[in-house]
Amino acid sequence: MPDPIAIAILKTLNYADLFDYALTREEVFRFLIDARASRDDIDRALDEPARINGSVARIDGFLALPQRQAVVAARARWRAAAQRQLPRARFYARVIAHFPFVRMIALTGGLAMENARDNDIDYMIVTAPGRLWLVRGLAVALVHLARLRGDQLCPNFLLTEDALKIPDETLYTAHEVVQMIPLYGVMIYRQFRRMNQWATDFLPNADRADALPPEAPLSHLGALAKRAAERALGGALGNRIEHWEMTRKIDKLTARIPVDADSVTFSTDVCRGFFNGHGRRVLNEFNERIKQLQMENDK
């Protein structure tokens, strides 16, 4: 009979390997694919050679696929790079949190997993309804300023509070949902996770492994300035700016969409511009690996 825990562990390691990423036992537990299991269940499967059948390499506390030991050394390098980047990522998130109409900001992408190989600082931003494109304009201005300091900010996913449910329910998106780190707006983050509970269909352990970092409130003066800006831009003036920015940017961004783009949506409530097709390639390669894994298991 197939061993569901062992198979889930091998699926999890294969998915991480697509990112040249070794996992700790705790991370195998948190990101276990397609199975709910306790830490003891996972430890027993890993510690019984017959169940894993030589399919896992163990190096310095990390787990990887056989013949892929190099990803352990690579992970140490990327983690060191991430530790240097994280303070800057938190600083810029703090700046964005002071923008009017920003309700949540979360760190996403490789940096959220301490896998900082491309120097990007990816954010997801949630805004008040009707002000997404105004906020995006402010964020893009910050992107240009950060670039002068050598930092590459990528606020490439914005939603309003009316559009927290993500429609493309895939393993790749589920990982993005559960691995993001909320840096401002924890209440909205909790609502976002509830609206995307489907992610735990792919990663059943993630809902009980997540621990939210403490959230520092905005400074008194910062909060006053934010409320004042929202009052000034909450009426007709803000509506005109929003409509102008939305119209011109949707036209411009839509013209850039390649045929192999991932999830790309530009609307009143969503700005999601993943143009490079990375998610689709990851899922295609993962599915091929799982087919091979199943064939080997059936022998």
Summarize the structure.
The protein has 299 residues and is of the alpha+beta class. It has helices at 4-17, 25-30, 39-47, 49-52, 70-97, 109-112, 132-148, 171-179, 186-195, 199-202, 206-209, 220-232, 236-254, 278-298; strands at 57-59, 62-64, 102-108, 120-127, 152-160, 181-184, 264-266, 270-273.
Can you put this structure into words, describing what you see?
The chain has 299 residues and is of the alpha+beta class. The chain has 14 helices and eight strands. The protein has helices at residues 4-17, 25-30, 39-47, 49-52, 70-97, 109-112, 132-148, 171-179, 186-195, 199-202, 206-209, 220-232, 236-254, 278-298, and strands at residues 57-59, 62-64, 102-108, 120-127, 152-160, 181-184, 264-266, 270-273. Strands 6-3-4-5-8-7 form a six-stranded mixed beta sheet, sandwiched between helices.
List its salient traits.
299 residues, alpha+beta, two-stranded antiparallel ribbon, 6-stranded mixed beta sheet, 14% strand
